[in-house]
Amino acid sequence: MGTHLSRTVAEGLAFMNLIDGKAIDALSGARIDVVCPSDGVVFASIPASGQADVDRAVQAARNAFDEGPWGRTPAVERGRCLTRLCQLVEKHGTELAALESRDTGKPVRQGRADVVATMRYYEFYGGAADKIHGDTIPFLDGYTALTLREPHGVVAGIIPWNYPLQILARVVGAALAMGNTLVVKPAEDASLTTIRIAELALEAGVPPGVFNVTTGYGREAGAMLSAHPGVDYVTFTGSVGTGTAIQQAAAVHNRGVTMELGGKSPQIVFADADIEAALPVLVNAIIQNGGQTCSAGSRVLIERPIYEEVATGLAERFARLAAGPHDADLDLGALLNARQRDRVAAMVAEAERAGIRVLARGSIDKAAPAGGFYFAPALFGAVDPGAAIAQQEVFGPVLTLFPFEDEQDAIRLANGTDYGLVCGVWTKDGARQHRVAKRVRSGQVFINGYGAGGGIELPFGGFKRSGHGREKGLEALYDMSATKTIVFNHG
Ligand code: NAP
Ligand code: MG
Description:
Elements: E1 17-19, E2 22-24, E3 31-36, E4 41-47, H1 51-66, H2 75-91, H3 93-104, H4 108-128, E5 136-137, E6 143-151, E7 154-158, H5 164-177, E8 181-185, H6 192-203, E9 211-213, H7 218-226, E10 233-237, H8 240-252, E11 256-260, E12 265-269, H9 275-287, E13 297-303, H10 307-319, E14 322-323, H11 338-353, E15 358-361, E16 363-364, E17 378-380, H12 388-391, E18 398-404, H13 407-414, E19 422-426, H14 430-439, E20 444-447, E21 467-468, H15 475-479, E22 481-489
Parallel strand pairs: 7-8, 7-10, 8-9, 10-11, 12-13, 12-19, 13-18, 14-16, 17-18, 19-20
Antiparallel strand pairs: 1-2, 3-4, 5-6, 6-22, 11-21, 15-17
Helix pairs in contact: 1-7, 2-4, 2-6, 3-4, 4-5, 9-10
Bound molecules: NADP nicotinamide-adenine-dinucleotide phosphate (NAP) and magnesium ion.
The site of NADP nicotinamide-adenine-dinucleotide phosphate has 29 residues, from helix 7, helix 8 and helix 11.
């Protein structure tokens, strides 16, 4: 299938890399089948890029940075490109949402929500591009000192499969706003909207070579890109293990990285909480996107006097949850692929073998195709905080409940995993809200609410093994640039 020059339905949607503004196949012609998780059927293909393709993309980004017009494009103009990209995402929103849902199995309303968030990223960073500036610094007599925020140069973005449109947008928005150029390697199971967005970016006026895409396997194209000597900075979202490998590769070249490595995020429900308000939020925080969300609220810590009431309320809701094809738009879709479904199933089976009680299971819709990668939601309680299911990221629709005795116990449990991404706190006690928010080790804390994803203007990132560096908000623009200090001796 190596000779497609453009994709058509008749050709089976053969997608291409986008390098230096051109749609081109991998040099080898090797391709990867794209499977729809809802039925397990192949509906498209992408290039399986190798070293030559990655070299070519990095060289294109290098040339665009060093010699192309991008380096001389004023910040306001870079921002306008992103604003036009926002408008093009809106114009093509229906197509993008449908493509994302079909590629990842997520319900179509989640695909639409992802498009809305994606627009918001390009809108936010389009508006922010010319509003980040340096300082003047009081220094010695006879001197003037100032700082500039300068782009890193060529940024490599390794994008995961759970929210491809959104995670791409937070990388592209911040990187291009600050004047970097980009090579993106999307996940092999969810590359299609990344290619479409790169095409739309060209249409929005981003010059050729500024935003390149090479698809392929993580262990091949991903590893080649993250180890490439021509890359100046790497931003990665995904698993801890792959993040560690990418940091080791970055260490060889002494270059900076932003790492967003998932979590085991707790929600703490105190006895004075508004339980009716909390219950739907607790369920949604783990069911959204089938639990395949880095900030999924996968642990609920419940103060002992209300444990039974909250557990019963959650069990009733879990029993009503149904998984089905993306276009049936049920509570959740299929999981990404068979490997992911089997991984979740194995972790649930291990918890059951360990004697942890299943409080409720959701169902798989009877009309769901047999070839799809479905998993019925599972609610466990009370869970031993040391159990694997309490400590490891499941990345599926699996919620674990834990009783706690008092505030100190809650904080100890909340901080009792290797991760620290997001925390929810449910209480009406204002002083407690502040105390707990300060003592939990996590990058975001929500009081009487929870935001799994969303909140484009809110800085986001991890403590502990959840990673380092910050994305979203204005903070991402600092990650995507470096400070240059200039000192004038004028006597
Ligand atoms: P992963 O390996 O971390 O994949 C994330 C991205 O890294 C994908 O683009 C992947 O490409 C790429 N990649 C894989 N190996 C690489 C390497 N050696 N060098 C450079 N890039 C590489 O995650 P996964 O295996 O798909 O999922 C496993 C678990 O990771 C999940 O169950 C979940 O717990 C966690 N995860 C977390 C997030 C998050 O948002 N924090 C996202 C995804 C997964 P390919 O997909 O083409 O291999
Ligand atoms: Mg797919």
